[in-house]
Amino acid sequence: MQPLRGTKDILPYEIIYWQDIYMKASAILSLHNYSEIRTPIIESTELFKRSIGEMTDIIHKEMYTFTDQSNRSITLRPEGTAGIARAFISNKLYQSNLQKFWYFGPMFRYERPQSGRQRQFHQLGIECIGSINPMADVEVIHLANKILNEFKLYDYILEINSIGNLEERQKYETDLIEYLSKYKKDLDQDSQKRLYSNPLRILDSKHIKTQEIVQYAPNLNKYLNKTSIEHFDLVCTYLNNLKINYKINYNLVRGLDYYNNTAFEIKTVCQNSQNTICGGGRYDTLIEQLGGPRTPAVGWAIGLERVLKIIDQRWQLAQKNTYIYIATQGLEAKKQVWSIVKNLENEKLRFELDLSNSNFQKQIQKASKIGAKFCMIIGEEEINNKKITIRILDEHKQYSVAYSQVKEEIHRLKNILSS
Ligand code: ATP
Ligand code: MG
């Protein structure tokens, strides 16, 4: 049996990186008053259609959708923001004026699997809900920057744009379609299909010929009104004040419909087509569109597989050591051993209890193999003399400790091991 195409097992030697990412992100985000939120992996299909947009790639061809036993259409979440907006409304979280959330979890998209592109992948994301202030945009970007630096990632570029509001975009789209129609037959096939349904996406086509055509297309920033321009200018000013490097990319649009004004992506400098590690922006109308009160918001999501691909060679994480091994022989020893287990638990010493019926020699070999420092031995002789034997594995020495002294001895070992 093989895992499903585009899915991967995360094995114990890799999980330490995931745990480290989780802890590092959690530490930074809680300092900034962000709280973790966990929403369901399944939601109604309608939620995604109404938020991400019918004409986007995600809705059009990437969703894992099924009908459940009650004939409801259910979708495995392809991203985190829609579920959080839904949770914000269902739980009436709008009663407090600002909510800051972060999340970490699996997302599902039916895409062509390749390096950095899976069908089940993981995102770390944040949402700052309730502020229209450009300071909020900059605070979330600052946090992406801080978190990536904490992951020891520095060689990336932040690209930013303003995609204005719906009205501005509609005017722009009309003109863009008019311009692109003239070159329709020269556009790549995907772009031809998108010409009337989602023309903005043509702007970030990777096709050389399409890119050449797009170069002379009307520019969205010329269609922005005063409020949108002021917002964008302030975002840029604050980024300058924070000394965050960025590049304005007037062709940057996002693949989801709910964004307005600020849109940004963080790309690594490597020449790889899966080099976007973070995407985000403002979504001031999403919550209202889903039936909640009008609430502006801004956020981003980092693709963790793409981050891990770059950083796992740089991280030297210490594997946790198992310090103590417990070897027993005979039924009486196996009855006695549990009080030792409890003492080790109390001292919070990492141990492994041998669960085989092998002889002592084999058990002690196993202890050395996993790198334990001490092996506690209980056999017939120990039972008869009410003691246990402790073997110092590196030194091939051993000594005995009376039952009554075991607790103190374990405490002493703990001190040796932690010094
Ligand atoms: P792309 O253009 O690469 O498909 P996207 O615009 O669809 O990305 P977003 O929806 O903005 O991606 O998701 C945010 C981040 O999540 C991306 O920048 C990327 O790092 C990661 N991501 C998205 N789709 C996948 C996937 N199928 N496998 C792994 N990571 C992904
Ligand atoms: Mg995509």
From TrEMBL:
<keyword id="KW-0436">Ligase</keyword>
<keyword id="KW-0547">Nucleotide-binding</keyword>
<dbReference type="InterPro" id="IPR004516">
    <property type="entry name" value="HisRS/HisZ"/>
</dbReference>
<protein>
    <recommendedName>
        <fullName>histidine--tRNA ligase</fullName>
        <ecNumber>6.1.1.21</ecNumber>
    </recommendedName>
</protein>
<feature type="binding site">
    <location>
        <begin position="258"/>
        <end position="259"/>
    </location>
    <ligand>
        <name>L-histidine</name>
    </ligand>
</feature>
<feature type="domain" description="Aminoacyl-transfer RNA synthetases class-II family profile">
    <location>
        <begin position="1"/>
        <end position="311"/>
    </location>
</feature>
<dbReference type="GO" id="GO:0005737">
    <property type="term" value="C:cytoplasm"/>
</dbReference>
<dbReference type="InterPro" id="IPR004154">
    <property type="entry name" value="Anticodon-bd"/>
</dbReference>
<feature type="binding site">
    <location>
        <position position="109"/>
    </location>
    <ligand>
        <name>L-histidine</name>
    </ligand>
</feature>
<dbReference type="InterPro" id="IPR045864">
    <property type="entry name" value="aa-tRNA-synth_II/BPL/LPL"/>
</dbReference>
<dbReference type="GO" id="GO:0006427">
    <property type="term" value="P:histidyl-tRNA aminoacylation"/>
</dbReference>
<dbReference type="InterPro" id="IPR036621">
    <property type="entry name" value="Anticodon-bd_dom_sf"/>
</dbReference>
<dbReference type="GO" id="GO:0004821">
    <property type="term" value="F:histidine-tRNA ligase activity"/>
</dbReference>
<feature type="binding site">
    <location>
        <position position="127"/>
    </location>
    <ligand>
        <name>L-histidine</name>
    </ligand>
</feature>
<dbReference type="InterPro" id="IPR006195">
    <property type="entry name" value="aa-tRNA-synth_II"/>
</dbReference>
<dbReference type="Pfam" id="PF03129">
    <property type="entry name" value="HGTP_anticodon"/>
</dbReference>
<dbReference type="GO" id="GO:0005524">
    <property type="term" value="F:ATP binding"/>
</dbReference>
<keyword id="KW-0030">Aminoacyl-tRNA synthetase</keyword>
<comment type="similarity">
    <text>Belongs to the class-II aminoacyl-tRNA synthetase family.</text>
</comment>
<feature type="binding site">
    <location>
        <begin position="79"/>
        <end position="81"/>
    </location>
    <ligand>
        <name>L-histidine</name>
    </ligand>
</feature>
<dbReference type="InterPro" id="IPR041715">
    <property type="entry name" value="HisRS-like_core"/>
</dbReference>
<dbReference type="InterPro" id="IPR015807">
    <property type="entry name" value="His-tRNA-ligase"/>
</dbReference>
<dbReference type="Pfam" id="PF13393">
    <property type="entry name" value="tRNA-synt_His"/>
</dbReference>
<feature type="binding site">
    <location>
        <position position="123"/>
    </location>
    <ligand>
        <name>L-histidine</name>
    </ligand>
</feature>
<feature type="binding site">
    <location>
        <position position="254"/>
    </location>
    <ligand>
        <name>L-histidine</name>
    </ligand>
</feature>
<keyword id="KW-0934">Plastid</keyword>
